[in-house]
Structures are given as structure tokens and as C-alpha cells.
Specification:
The structure holds two protein chains of two kinds. By secondary structure, chain A is α+β, with helices and mostly antiparallel strands. Helices cover 15% and strands 23% of the residues of chain A. Chain A contains two helices and six strands, in the order E-H-E-H-E-E-E-E. The longest helix of chain B is centred in the N-terminal third of the chain and has 14 residues. Helix content of chain B is 24%, strand content 40%. Chain B is built from three helices and nine strands, in the order βαβββαβαββββ. Classes of the chains: A alpha+beta, B alpha/beta. The interface between A and B is medium-sized, with 27 and 38 residues.
Chain lengths: 101, 135
């Protein structure tokens, strides 16, 4: 069963403008990889080069942040819903790594 | 242009003052196309720092759902600078998540808080007018 994935506005352009897309998988990581296969424009936006969840996004399984679960290994089931939102952060000093472009 | 209801302006500034000595932050719900803000969503600053902010991801999800349910979107973020100008820092620019968003800065450096709004697209900062609206 495909799992619905809600995309933030900034990523919708990479998915033909769709607000919700869907992909198959039994873990968060599998679903996200299947999603990137379907929409190659999402490549590098959700999963980083090291194969981990990208630090500039938050991914939720239903109401919960998957970083507090098993991240990409978190299992998903048919009735679940995944949401992706940008990680919103900043501050007065520039002591964090610059976002790659 | 950011169309900012006075009540939202006041709520935003009050949240920033209440967050001192740390930076405070929150999200703005409204109409992405017109730049009209409808709702202020004050959030926790998970970084709990005077120099950094991180919007609580769980509160972000709740705010996003609330805005969508009202037919709106999250159209921007606000945060305070406790000792510097209301101007985006290199960190703010580097981490700006969405070119369509409005980036509102509340400076608490002076006695009177200063509120300014910016667009940040591909690392380029452009200030935009803030129109205080009734309500």
C-alpha cells in the first residue's frame, strides 16, 4: 500500500506541485527513497549524501518527529501518514555550517 | 509586502520579550500569494540560546496543520535578535528554508522593539515593507 507523504511548499515544485504524494515502503527510509526515485528533483533534499535524514528537514510519522523514533529505520504501516517540513532555525551568530547549494 | 495585523504584531513582540534573555521564535500563518498574515504561532526555541533559535518541530507540524485547515499556509517565520539589528544574520540566510517565505526579525536591542521583514532568495536578502493592518 502506498503511504501518503505531505510535502512542504518548498519541495512541491519538485513533485509537479503536488501537496501530497505517495510511495511504497516498510520503513520511513524506504518510502523516502521510493519517493526520490519517483521525483528525482527531491534527490539530496530529504536524504543527505551519507544516506541519513537531511538536517534541513524534519520528517514526521503521523504526529511524531522520526528523529525521536528510529529515524529512517522507523517502520511504517498502511494507515500511516508521513509529513515533511523544513527545519526552521537560525540566529544572530553564524557559527553553523552553511547550507550547501 | 507583508500585511501584518496589529494584533499579530503585538503578539509576536510580546512573545519575543517573554523569551528574553534567549532568542524567541514562531511561525506566521496566512496567504502566501498576498503576504497577508492571519495567525501568529509562537513556538518554543529548542536551542534555548541568546544567539540561536530552532523552531520546535512538533509545534511546527501543529501550526502547519492548523494553518492548512484554515485554508492558509505557513508563510514565514519570526525570531528575535536580542542584541543586534533587525537584519538577517549569515546563519539566518544560510538556513532560510523557503524562498517564498517572509523572514521577520524583531530586534530587542533598543528600548522600542524594531520589527522588519525580508525575503531571502538564493542567499540574497531583500527587505520588504511591513504594512500594519487593523485587527
Amino acid at each position: 500500500m502506498p503511504i501518503p507523504v505531505n510535502l512542504p511548499t518548498v519541495l512541491r515544485t519538485h513533485a509537479g506541485g503536488a501537496k501530497t504524494v505517495s510511495a511504497e515502503g516498510s520503513t520511513i527510509g524506504e518510502v523516502l527513497l521510493a519517493l526520490v526515485e519517483q521525483y528525482p528533483g527531491l534527490s539530496g533534499q530529504v536524504i543527505d549524501e551519507g544516506g541519513n535524514l537531511h538536517k534541513f528537514v524534519n520528517v514526521y510519522l503521523n504526529d511524531d518527529d522520526v528523529r525521536y523514533m528510529s529515524a529512517l529505520d522507523t517502520p511504517v504501516k498502511d494507515s500511516d501518514e508521513i509529513s515533511i517540513l523544513p527545519a526552521v532555525a537560525g540566529g544572530a551568530v553564524g557559527d553553523r555550517a552553511l547550507r550547501p547549494r | 509586502m507583508l500585511l501584518l495585523p496589529r494584533a499579530v504584531h503585538d503578539q509576536m513582540v510580546a512573545h519575543c520579550l517573554a523569551g528574553l534573555p534567549d532568542e524567541a521564535c514562531g511561525l506566521l500563518g496566512g496567504n502566501l500569494e498576498t503576504g497577508a498574515v492571519v495567525t501568529c504561532y509562537p513556538t518554543r526555541n529548542l536551542a534555548a540560546s541568546a544567539k540561536l533559535y530552532t523552531v520546535d518541530p512538533k509545534e511546527h507540524l501543529q501550526a502547519d496543520r492548523n494553518a492548512e485547515a484554515a485554508g492558509n499556509s505557513i508563510i514565514g517565520v519570526f525570531h528575535s535578535h536580542t542584541h543586534t539589528d533587525a537584519y538577517p544574520s549569515p546563519t539566518d540566510v544560510a538556513q532560510a528554508p523557503d524562498p517564498d517565505w517572509h523572514y521577520v526579525l524583531v530586534s530587542l536591542r533598543d528600548v522600542q522593539p524594531v520589527v522588519r521583514s525580508y525575503r531571502i532568495v538564493d542567499g540574497a536578502i531583500a527587505e520588504e515593507p511591513v504594512s500594519l493592518e487593523p485587527g
